[in-house]
């Protein structure tokens, strides 16, 4: 009987030409870095992504094995409805328009704030990121965190660095195409390109207030506790109290041009958000 135990350490990618004391990461992973080809549909890859793919495959197998008579079959029904591309095609834009309707019907900034919150609870991309976690300086308590968000491109650098100009141009064209295909621009009495340019301008304004990736690594700088009751005073112009209440948390009007850009931006982000 073979009693040998597998340590879990893979040595096939070790680059012995690099001394571990000089560059341990390169020593352990050098051959993988030199020979591995990242799949064309990905910008990065590695062990964690393989683990994620395997986990999703196993979940699919479990869901597909669930017997119809079991209560868990509702999970299978939900999964199958998501994978039913024929039904998705036959439904056309109608399910999407149901999601967009509350945005188009928001008549005030307060109503739009509530709509943004409800869409955020549904998992769609938002103007502000949020989550609840342990207080970084008081582990006995949980706190509600707000984070920067609201961009369709990966980060703020895309909106200000010249090397991304072609990406930005293609992004604007993509938004215009989506607005043309869905007919959403008509709801704002704009052409698809006008809507796309308005949205990009809005995102550029958001990006101007974002921290770059370097500053975002500064845990001390990111720790800025504020009472919920102080949010409207510290950040006027956006009805954060209504937004928080609609999110389910406890706890000035916008210019028309900003309100219009927010409406069109939110409609776009609803169309452009991948399913979760």
From TrEMBL:
<keyword id="KW-0378">Hydrolase</keyword>
<dbReference type="InterPro" id="IPR000718">
    <property type="entry name" value="Peptidase_M13"/>
</dbReference>
<dbReference type="Pfam" id="PF05649">
    <property type="entry name" value="Peptidase_M13_N"/>
</dbReference>
<dbReference type="GO" id="GO:0016485">
    <property type="term" value="P:protein processing"/>
</dbReference>
<dbReference type="GO" id="GO:0004222">
    <property type="term" value="F:metalloendopeptidase activity"/>
</dbReference>
<feature type="domain" description="Peptidase M13 N-terminal">
    <location>
        <begin position="20"/>
        <end position="246"/>
    </location>
</feature>
<dbReference type="GO" id="GO:0005886">
    <property type="term" value="C:plasma membrane"/>
</dbReference>
<dbReference type="InterPro" id="IPR042089">
    <property type="entry name" value="Peptidase_M13_dom_2"/>
</dbReference>
<dbReference type="InterPro" id="IPR008753">
    <property type="entry name" value="Peptidase_M13_N"/>
</dbReference>
<protein>
    <submittedName>
        <fullName>Neutral endopeptidase</fullName>
        <ecNumber>3.4.24.-</ecNumber>
    </submittedName>
</protein>
């Amino acid at each position: 009987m073979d009693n040998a135990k597998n340590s879990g350490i893979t040595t096939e990618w070790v680059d012995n030409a690099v001394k571990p004391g000089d560059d341990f990461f390169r020593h352990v992973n050098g051959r993988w870095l030199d020979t591995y080809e990242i799949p064309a549909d990905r910008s990065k890859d590695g062990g964690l992504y393989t683990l994620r793919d395997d986990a999703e495959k196993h979940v699919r197998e479990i869901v597909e094995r669930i017997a119809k008579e079991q209560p868990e079959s509702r999970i299978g029904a939900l999964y199958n409805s998501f994978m039913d591309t024929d039904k998705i095609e036959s439904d056309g834009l109608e399910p999407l328009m149901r999601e967009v309707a509350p945005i188009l019907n928001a008549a005030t900034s307060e109503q739009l704030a509530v709509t943004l919150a409800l869409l955020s609870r549904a998992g769609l991309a938002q103007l502000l990121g949020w989550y609840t976690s342990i207080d970084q300086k008081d582990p006995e308590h949980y706190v509600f965190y707000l984070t920067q968000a609201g961009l369709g491109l990966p980060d703020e650098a895309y909106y200000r660095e010249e090397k991304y100009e072609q990406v930005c141009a293609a992004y604007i064209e993509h938004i215009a195409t989506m607005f043309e295909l869905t007919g959403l621009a008509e709801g704002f009495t704009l052409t698809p390109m006008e809507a796309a340019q308005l949205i990009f301008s809005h995102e550029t304004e958001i990006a101007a207030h974002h921290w770059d990736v370097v500053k975002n690594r500064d845990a001390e700088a990111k720790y800025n506790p504020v009472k919920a009751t102080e949010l409207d005073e510290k950040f006027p112009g956006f009805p954060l109290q209504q937004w928080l209440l609609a999110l389910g948390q406890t706890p000035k009007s916008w210019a028309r041009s900003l309100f219009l850009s927010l409406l069109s931006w939110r409609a776009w982000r609803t169309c452009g958000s991948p399913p979760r």
